[in-house]
Structure formats: C-alpha cells, structure tokens
Amino acid sequence: MSASGNGSPFAQRDFRRYFASRIASGVAIQIVNVGVGWTVYDLTGDPFALGLVGLVTFLPSVLFALLTGPAADRFDRRAVLAAAFAVAALAVAGLFLHQLLGSRAVWPVFALVFLFGTGRAFANPAGAALLPALVPAELLRVAVTWNSMAFQGSIVLGPALGGLLWLAGGPVVFGSALAGFVLAIGLVSTLAPRPLAPSSEPPGLARLLAGFTYIRAHRLILGAISLDMVAVLLGGATALLPIFAKDILAVGPAGLGALRAAPAVGAVAMALLLARRPLDRRVGVKMLLAVGVFGLAMAGFGLSTNFWLSLACLAVAGAADMVSVVVRQTLVQLETPDSMRGRVSAVNTLFIGASNELGEFESGVVAALIGTVPATVLGGLGTVVAALLWSHLFPELRRRDRLVPGETPGDEKGGARAPPS
Q1: pLDDT digits (tens, 9 = 90+) for 35-52
Q2: What's the rounded Cα separation, in Å, for the pair 298 and 187?
Q3: Reduced to 3 states, what is the DSSP secondary structure of residue 336?
Q4: Measuring CA to CA, which residue among 386, 272, 385, 256 is closest to residue 318?
Q5: Which spans in 75-139 are helix H?
C-alpha cells in the first residue's frame, strides 16, 4: 500500500504527526531499556535484579489502573499523551544525571524506572484511544498495522542505537533518549483538538471499572488480550538478553542491541506484508497459530549458541507476534465505543504490561532458580501449550473469521460488536 493518497492513513496530516511521535518516543523507550538493562546488570551481576526492572516498570500500570483509562476518556487525549511523555522525559533526565555523576548506587535507577513506568502507564491508553480519531473508519485496520509497525520499527532502531551509543558512554545514551521524548512532545502538541463527546455514564467506581467490565463481557476481546498476555509472559525473554549477550553468546553491548532489535526486524517485515495484504479470513485461527510459532521460535532461541541463529529465531518470533498484535489491537479498537476506548485501552495496556514487564520479572526469577537456558526453553514450550489451550477455552476466538464485523454475512459469530458510539 502506498504511504500517500486517499486510500492511506498517511493522507491525514495528524496521523503522519502521530506516527512520527510513535517512532520518536518508541526509539527513546528502547534506548532507555537497553541503557537501564546494561546498567543494572553491570552494577549487580544478578539476573533477579534484571527481573526487578520489569516489575518496577509494570507497577505503575497496576497502581494507577483506575486512573489511566478514565484520564484518557475524560480529558483531551493529546494533552494527556504529551503530559505522560513529559513525565517519562523527567525520569530519563534523572538517569542521565545518574550516569553523568558516575554513581554506583542501584536504588536511584529503580526509583527513576518507576517514574518512567508511570509516564508510560498514562501514555499507552491515551495514545491508543487517540488513534481511531485520526483516520476514517475504513482505514483503521491499516492505521493499526502502521501504528504497530512504528513501534516495532523503533525496536529495530532503538536497541541497536542504544548499544552503539553505549560505546560513547551512559550520559550519551540517556541524553539521546531525552531528545526523543522532547521531539515526541512537540509532535503530539501540534495535533488538532478533538473534543470528547459528553459521557452519559454516572461518576463513581462503576465508571472507573467499566473497562474491566466491558472486556469481561466480550469474550472475543478477553480471549485475544489474555492469550497475548500469557504468550509473552511465558515465552518472552527480553530481561534475559543481557545474560545471553554477555555470558552465552559473548557479543557485548552492541550484540545486545542487535538481539533486542531482531524480533522487531521480523515484526516490521510482517507488518509491511500485512499493510499491503491485510488479514482477511480466519483471523482467529491465524492468531492462535502465530502464538504457537512464537513459542517454538523462543524455545529455539534458548537452545541456540550461535549468534546468527539466535537472531533468526528472534526475528521469526517477532514476525509471529506481529500477527497477534494486529488481530488483538484491531479487535479492541473496532469493538469498543469511542467513549470507552481510554478505559478499555488501559486494561489492554495492563495486560500488555503484565506480559512484558511482569514477564521480565518472571523470567528473571525462573532463570535465577533453574538457569537462563532452561527458563527460556520451557517458557517457549509453555507458550505453545497456551495456544492449544486457548483454542478450546475461547472458541469465539478460534471461530472468528474476519476482523471487521459486517463485511460478510455470519462473520460476527466470533463475538458481539460494540454499539455505535
């Protein structure tokens, strides 16, 4: 698909700026992740400490779960997103000073990671809820794919850039990340205002919990989100990559950047394919198969002692994960009324955080108990088992034919469609 023209989301000015902000912030996030991971492991030499980084990053998503979604549904989503980026930038500035001063204390790093996670906790639902307002409804599927590609593209560039920048020193790493967040804030601030429709929902706890209630009542969305969460929770090995880079593959910080980028290389390749040839039929089955392939690829990565084979396994895992991401994100956006997108996206973010950051904690704990390689291999195989189990627990997901309800008769049997907003 062309990146310009009436049939492309890039024909929309605000989508172009939003897309650019996704790349700028995404690259900055990945640079921070590489810098923090290498710093913590260098200071402690402890896999458990690496797992703690994931836990501390995830905690704000839990602690503020009842605030992040309502903030995106009540206030100007542009302002919420810009403010969230500003909080993350403040944390990165602190990490910059920590490196500049040459501190060997690890606790300030964890405190700043918590602040960084707080900014991300508010940014994710606001950004996700803002996206559907930037493009016509018929372009949303493609916009979601390009949006995911922006994130995955940042994972290609960010870790590799972070690893190379580390050769110039920690202050350069975090200073570059800070510049990325400043650029993202500027881009988001130039988006056109989009007032939210007044909500008829009464204030109170029920309104705060509406995102959880909605997902629980829509088993199709629940199945897609929970499968993605369990797959990455079990099969993800991001927190362990510094160990693979330093102790198993012996490739150093630059190799660590390549390892972190490899899944995104596969994901971007898959996203480019999906942008030209969007998922059409049997999307539920394709998601289940993709999760199984992801698990097998991660098990292969755990067994590999060859750097290039390890990169290939991670690239396959990233490509498979992209299929799952596009199906999940599109279903969440299309089947949720606009007045609730912030809260539903917040719950989705919580699930994603549980799979990514909490998954890093789980990986660190299991690796400390049974070893890095066994933890990675068993996690990958566990993901395959999860895909088989979910195909029976959520037949709505397995039977889902098309992403967009109403395209053909009978294609809504996979789940109920949200009422118009």
Answers
A1: 898 888 888 878 778 778
A2: 36
A3: coil
A4: 272
A5: 77-100, 107-130
DSSP classification of residue 376 = H
Q: Are 252 and 246 in contact (CB under 8 A)?
A: yes
Summarised one tens digit per residue, pLDDT across range 170-196 is 899 999 999 999 999 999 999 887 665
DSSP 235-263: H--GGGHHHIIIIIS--HHHHHHHHHHHH
Side-chain half-sphere CA neighbours of 317 within 13 A: 32
Residues 6 or more apart from 270 whose CB is under 8 A from it? 318, 319, 320, 322, 323
> What is the amino acid identity at position 59?
L
Q: How far is CA 14 from the centre of its chain?
A: 22
Q: How far is CA 405 from CA 175, 402, 408, in A?
A: 46, 7, 8
Within 8 A by CB and 6+ apart from 6, the residues are none
Q: What distances in angstroms separate CA 204 from CA 39, 68, 201, 207, 226, one per listed residue? A: 43, 15, 9, 6, 27
The torsion of the CA quartet 279, 281, 283, 288, rounded to 10 degrees, works out to: -120
What's the pTM value of the predicted model, to 2 decimals? 0.69
d(CA 171, CA 290): 39
Q: What are the residues whose beta carbons fall under 8 Å from the beta carbon of 77, sequence distance 6 or more?
A: 126, 127, 129, 130, 133, 194, 196, 342
Separation of alpha carbons 155 and 40, rounded Å: 20
Name the CATH superfamily for 9-192+207-414.
Answer: MFS general substrate transporter like domains (1.20.1250.20)
Task: Identify the CA nearest to 257 among candidates 307, 327, 196.
Answer: 307
Q: Of all helices (H) and strands (E), which one includes residue 62?
A: helix 47-63
**Which tokens hold the place of 144?**
């979601």
Amino acid letter, 222: L
Residues 267/146, Cβ–Cβ less than 8 Å: no
String of b and e for 196-207 (b: at least 16 CB within 10 Å)? beeeeeeeeeeb
- What are the structure tokens assigned to 7, written together? 């049939």
* pLDDT value at residue 77: 87
Contact 115, 234 (CB under 8 A): no
Tokens of residue 374, six digits: 């066994």
pLDDT tens-digit series, residues 304-328:
989 999 999 999 998 998 888 888 8
Listed residue (336, 412, 387) closest to 137, CA to CA: 336
| Residues 89/181, Cβ–Cβ less than 8 Å | yes
Cα separation, 286 vs 296, in Å, equals: 15
Cβ atoms 44, 222 nearer than 8 A: no
* Cα end-to-end span (Å), the chain: 29
